[in-house]
Amino acid sequence: MKFKAIVLGAFVAVSAASAMSVMADTADAGVYVKDSVITTKVKAKLAAKHMSTLTNVKVDTDKDGVVWLSGTAPTKDASDLAEMITKDTKGVRSVHNKIEVE
Fold this sequence. Notes:
This protein is α+β, with helices and mostly antiparallel strands. The protein has one domain (2-101). 58% of the residues lie in helices and 21% in strands. It has two helices and three strands, in the order H-E-E-H-E. It has helices at residues 2-48, 76-87, and strands spanning 57-61, 66-73, 94-101. Helix 2 (76-87) links the parallel strand 2 and strand 3 (94-101). The N and C termini lie far apart (77 Å).
């Protein structure tokens, strides 16, 4: 009888740990989708400006909606425009502009 209780207790513990692991994976997947959506929105807005100078800009977004811009731009104005467009995108909380002016 004690053996059955020990086995049952171990099974419950393993099941609970497995369920928690699946929930964590699902939460991370949701965050990833959100991040990629913001990144895609920013890239689409930059492309919509038809400025070939902004094609060298890389966009990365973290789980908190913080966007990092990197790459190169020919002028400070182009870099500032990319930052302004990014800040005006839904879901973006802040922008780190690391774009280098050529």
